Amino acid sequence: xPIQLKLGDIAIDVIRKEIKNVHLSVHPPTGRxxxxxxxxxxxxxxxxxAIAKLPWIKKQQKKLREQERETPRxxxxxxxxxxxxxxxxxxxxxxxxxxxxxxxxxxxxxRVRPGTSSERREAILEEWQRELLHVTIxxxxxxxxxxxxxxxxAYFVQRMKTKWxxxxxxxxTIRLNTDLARKPRDCLEYIVVHxxxxxIEPTHNERFVAMMDHxxxxxxxxxxALNRLPVRHEDWDY
Length: 238
Known about the structure:
It is a single chain. A four-stranded mixed β-sheet has the order 1-2-4-3. A four-stranded mixed β-sheet has the order 5-6-8-7, with helices on one face. The radius of gyration is 20 Å and the shape is globular. The longest helix has 31 residues, at 118-148. Strand 3 and strand 4 form a beta hairpin. It has helices spanning 43-52, 54-66, 118-148, 185-197, 206-215, 219-228, and strands spanning 3-7, 10-17, 23-27, 32-38, 80-83, 86-94, 100-104, 107-112, 154-158, 165-168, 173-177. Helix 3 (118-148) crosses helix 4 and helix 4 crosses helix 6. It is built from six helices and eleven strands. 37% of the residues lie in helices and 26% in strands. By secondary structure, it is α/β, with parallel strands linked by helices.
């Protein structure tokens, strides 16, 4: 059970770990705050750290609370779904054949066997989105490896609830959120570049910002576009 720090109306969950540095995060959808701290760090020191970060915490909480959320999906006819940032109406086709997904005009055809549950329909669609990403991501990595003179040893695509991507700079690997298949391609490329820059500079310091400005001058607009788009309805947790 985490310890809690109270700063006015903001509660901060404190998690003790065998780490060297403090990691502060604000989690969707309500802006719950968590800090992972080295075991040796006292609560008084953590309180001073958190007070210094209050403006950033409040800014992140405001963004999360204002971001539009999709209604829960049931994977039924005429339901709205997004592929590469464009809206499609789902067309459910029941047939005794292998499940498949296909774009046809402005429709997203989901072929399933009769009696397939909504959970299974969701899984089929998500697997198709993973395949889209696995086709799209390698050419992007190849393009930016040449431009950045950096190498990605491996990439992974997975469902992520609190971030669009992550990077392990020591292993030279990056992870990308499956929901990026629902966003514009420019947003996917921005996240790929963001994580690849972290292979060179692990933190979000001035050097990182300067490198983003150099490699992708419009990255701020891509980030803002990604943050404006509706996000999946979730019961978020840790």
